[in-house]
């Protein structure tokens, strides 16, 4: 039974990966842009899922980290440096700022923490808008070049989509490794019961800061891809609503599930596009869909699946128990 | 300086009204309403719509108030909060974020994406206070907001219903044991919140115009006011609102218009780090 399940899972994974590689060859420019955007947003949401879903710290600042990453990439590449240098700066900067922003998390939790990160989000937006010498203010930075990878230019939409997809694969692999490492288990321990985690000898201070910093760094990685994807950035996309959108992606997909961000980003990026035929109503319908989903399953889409599988497993287990019991009873 | 202070107190008093509603919802039903700003934006459009069909201004106000009691009070509680409450704080907060998007888009679609002017219930003009010219609108808004806050405080502290509501907020289980109709009291706080946001809408829209996106700024100001003052105290939210209004106005004049919005944020971060329970809050609220 479980072997069967595992083969199914592997088959499903192969089909999805193949579809993500092959299908885009038949998409137009706009479709490729949307799909690349999905990959970028999934990376940012994965970072937030690490902070929120695994370590249990609410952050409303992920959008600001995407912004910091995007501006690092844009400023570096506009000055003739390679994108990989921008990526390095973005990761270091976001990691450091995320670490510092994690300090309030040591003192306050829940909604208070949400509001500290909300305030940070607004401050970051003001810096993007007002420090024109660095960010060119409201006029934004245009003509951001796309990178050349191994001598192969990625200016056209399809190659750049593969850059985004490849980065997503790398980040997924790294995250998967991280949550299975002792660090990942420490994060979950932190979420489930911080006092017990502390008494078991886990340095909760360090792991809280670490969860924040790594999650923020992934936001920065997403930003470094966002800048060459749109090739033009201004402060507006990185305001508070991006942070709220990312938070919604994580919750809607299923926070604390590895594949939650993939589904959540799919809903947030692709569903509005599919609903576009309804013209002005599409964001309204999106909002209603999110509310209905959360009323039905507060643990998101993967929560529904999880509940279904657990139910089936309990049924199977109790059936097995019944059989075992009847076998043990002596014959009359 | 005096006119700045009065204008600051006037907007601050409006923030205070919104923040009070926000803390009431949090206290009685653990609802962090991320759509509170949109709740302030919507009633003005309901009133404009009523006037558009030909109702005079006073009737439009009455219609707008009743509709917001129905939609933002009763409807919000029964359709969104009740089914989600048992799932915990975070999913409910996310659902209100989605609601905020929905309200914004609905207004943009059904009314207008442009800013519309809104009549003021206070006549235009200046009056002189201590030899200085002060806008009559600021003084009128301040007076009405103070009246609302005093009325609400009286209701909460002097009447039997107010005491029952406070008991519900402090400990619903014990309140139910001693025979307080907890469900009705919770509904009451939602209706009071709906009334407060409609009042705030009526007062602030003539100053900032009616626009679908104006809720974002207002909602944030109300959050900050509630946190700065203390999440678990009505008078904390009032003090926080007034403080944010004054600080915001003074910052625009003396710090820089560019970083005006940063000053309340810095204040917020400082308060949370140094005194997480808020200026007037009780420390017991802090969750560890």
Distance between the termini of chain B: 43 Å
- Strand content of chain B is under 5%
Give the termini distance of chain A in whole angstroms: 33 Å
Helix-and-strand structural type of chain B = mainly alpha
Major beta sheet summary of chain A = 2 strands, antiparallel
Name the biggest interface.
A-B, 39 and 42 residues
| Overall pLDDT confidence of chain B | 86
Into which percentage range does the β-strand content of chain A fall? under 5%
How many strands appear in the DSSP assignment of chain A? Answer: 2
How are the SSEs placed, and which strands pair?
The complex is a heterodimer of chains A (332) and B (288).
Chain A: H1 2-22, H2 29-54, H3 62-78, H4 83-107, H5 110-130, H6 132-135, E1 148-149, E2 152-153, H7 157-180, H8 182-192, H9 194-199, H10 204-230, H11 240-253, H12 260-274, H13 282-296, H14 300-328
Antiparallel strand pairs in A: 1-2
Chain B: H1 2-29, H2 36-52, H3 57-84, H4 89-110, E1 126-129, E2 132-135, H5 136-158, H6 160-170, H7 172-177, H8 182-208, H9 215-229, H10 234-254, H11 262-274
Helix pairs in contact in B: 1-5, 1-6, 1-8, 1-9, 1-10, 2-3, 2-4, 2-8, 2-9, 3-8, 5-6, 5-8, 6-8, 9-10, 9-11
Give keywords.
heterodimer; A: 332 residues; mainly alpha; two-stranded antiparallel ribbon; 14 helices; 2 strands; B: 288 residues; two-stranded antiparallel sheet; 11 helices; 73% helix; globular
Describe the structure.
- The complex is a heterodimer of chains A (332) and B (288).
- Chain A is an all-alpha fold and 332 residues long.
- Chain A has a domain at 28-240.
- Chain A is built from 14 helices and 2 strands; from the N terminus they run ααααααββαααααααα.
- Chain A has a two-stranded antiparallel sheet.
- In chain A, α3 packs parallel to α5 and α11 (240-253) runs parallel beside α14.
- The longest helix of chain A has 29 residues, at 300-328.
- In chain A, 45% of the residues are buried.
- Chain B is an all-alpha fold and 288 residues long.
- Chain B has one domain (2-214).
- Chain B has helices at residues 2-29, 36-52, 57-84, 89-110, 136-158, 160-170, 172-177, 182-208, 215-229, 234-254, 262-274; strands at residues 126-129, 132-135.
- The longest helix of chain B is centred in the N-terminal third of the chain and has 28 residues, at 2-29.
- Chain B is globular.
- The model of chain B has no long low-confidence stretch (mean pLDDT 86).
- At the A-B interface, α5, α11 and α13 of A face α3, α4, α9 and α11 of B.
């Amino acid at each position: 039974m479980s072997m069967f399940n595992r083969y199914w899972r592997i088959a499903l994974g192969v089909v999805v990966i193949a579809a993500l590689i092959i299908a885009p060859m038949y998409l137009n420019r706009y479709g490729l842009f949307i799909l690349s955007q999905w990959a970028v947003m999934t990376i940012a949401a994965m970072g937030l899922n690490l902070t929120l879903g695994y370590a249990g710290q609410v952050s409303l600042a992920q959008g600001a980290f995407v912004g910091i990453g995007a501006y690092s990439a844009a400023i570096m590449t506009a000055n003739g440096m390679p994108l990989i240098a921008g990526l390095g700066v973005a990761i270091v900067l976001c990691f450091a700022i995320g670490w510092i922003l994690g300090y309030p998390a040591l003192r306050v939790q829940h909604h208070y923490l949400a509001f500290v990160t909300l305030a940070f989000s607004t401050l970051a937006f003001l810096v993007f808008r007002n420090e024109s010498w660095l960010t060119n203010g409201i006029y934004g930075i245009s003509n951001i070049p796309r990178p050349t990878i191994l001598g192969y230019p990625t200016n056209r939409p399809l190659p750049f989509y593969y850059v985004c997809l490849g980065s997503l694969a790398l980040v997924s692999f790294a995250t998967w490794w991280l949550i299975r490492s002792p660090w990942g288990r420490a994060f979950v321990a932190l979420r489930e019961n911080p006092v017990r985690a502390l008494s078991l000898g886990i340095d909760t201070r360090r792991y809280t800061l670490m969860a924040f910093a790594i999650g923020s760094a992934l936001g920065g990685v997403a930003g470094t891809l966002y800048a060459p994807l749109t090739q033009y950035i201004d402060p507006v996309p990185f305001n508070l609503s991006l942070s709220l959108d990312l938070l919604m992606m994580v919750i809607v997909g299923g926070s604390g599930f590895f594949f939650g961000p993939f589904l959540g980003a799919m809903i947030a990026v692709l569903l509005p596009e599919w609903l576009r035929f309804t013209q002005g109503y599409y964001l309204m319908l999106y909002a209603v869909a999110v509310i209905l989903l959360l009323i039905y399953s507060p643990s998101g889409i993967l929560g529904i699946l999880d509940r279904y599988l657990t139910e089936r497993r309990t049924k199977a287990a109790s059936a097995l128990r019944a059989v075992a019991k009847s076998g043990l009873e002596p014959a009359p | 300086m005096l006119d700045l202070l009065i204008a600051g107190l006037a907007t601050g008093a409006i923030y205070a009204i919104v923040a009070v509603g926000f803390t009431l919802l949090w206290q009685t039903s653990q609802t962090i309403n991320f759509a509170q700003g949109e709740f302030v934006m919507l009633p003005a459009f309901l009133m404009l719509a009523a006037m558009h069909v030909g109702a005079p201004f006073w009737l439009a106000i009455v219609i707008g108030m009743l509709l917001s009691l129905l939609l933002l009070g009763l409807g919000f509680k029964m359709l969104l909060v009740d089914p989600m409450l048992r799932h915990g704080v975070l999913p409910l907060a996310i659902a209100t974020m989605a609601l905020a998007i929905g309200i914004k888009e609905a207004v943009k679609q059904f009314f207008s994406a442009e800013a519309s002017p809104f009549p003021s219930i206070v006549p235009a003009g200046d009056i002189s206070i201590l030899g200085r010219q002060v806008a009559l609108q600021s003084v009128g808004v301040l007076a009405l907001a103070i009246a609302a806050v005093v009325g609400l405080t009286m209701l909460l502290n002097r009447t039997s219903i107010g005491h029952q509501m406070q008991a519900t907020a402090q400990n619903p289980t014990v309140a139910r044991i001693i025979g307080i109709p907890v469900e009705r009291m919770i509904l009451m706080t939602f209706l009071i919140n709906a009334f407060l946001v409609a009042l705030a809408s009526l007062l602030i829209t003539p100053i900032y115009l009616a626009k679908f996106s104006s809720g974002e700024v207002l909602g944030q100001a109300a959050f900050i006011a509630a946190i700065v003052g203390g999440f678990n105290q009505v008078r904390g939210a009032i003090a926080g609102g007034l403080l944010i209004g004054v600080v915001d106005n003074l910052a625009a004049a003396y710090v820089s218009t560019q970083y005006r919005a940063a000053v309340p944020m810095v204040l917020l971060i400082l308060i949370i780090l140094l005194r997480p329970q808020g200026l007037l809050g009780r420390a017991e609220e802090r969750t560890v």
